[in-house]
Amino acid sequence: MYHPLIEDISNLSIEAANLKMSELQKKLQIAYRTGNMDLMNQLQMVIAMYQDHINTKTAEQMKEINNRNQGPDDKIDIS
What we know:
79 residues, mainly alpha
């Protein structure tokens, strides 16, 4: 689920998304301490959005690495 008030994060790098998630998790800790349930729910939704973005970017990088490693050198010539 994506938060409607958050700008497009599709261009963020994994590192930038991780930094933003760290900031959000600190804010979530404050919300837990104060008992603000509405804020906790909103922050959890945004954190999940950033985590999903990180997972997608990581999967894309892994797929790219696997595609680079599958070249003609990987085939065995049995003739």
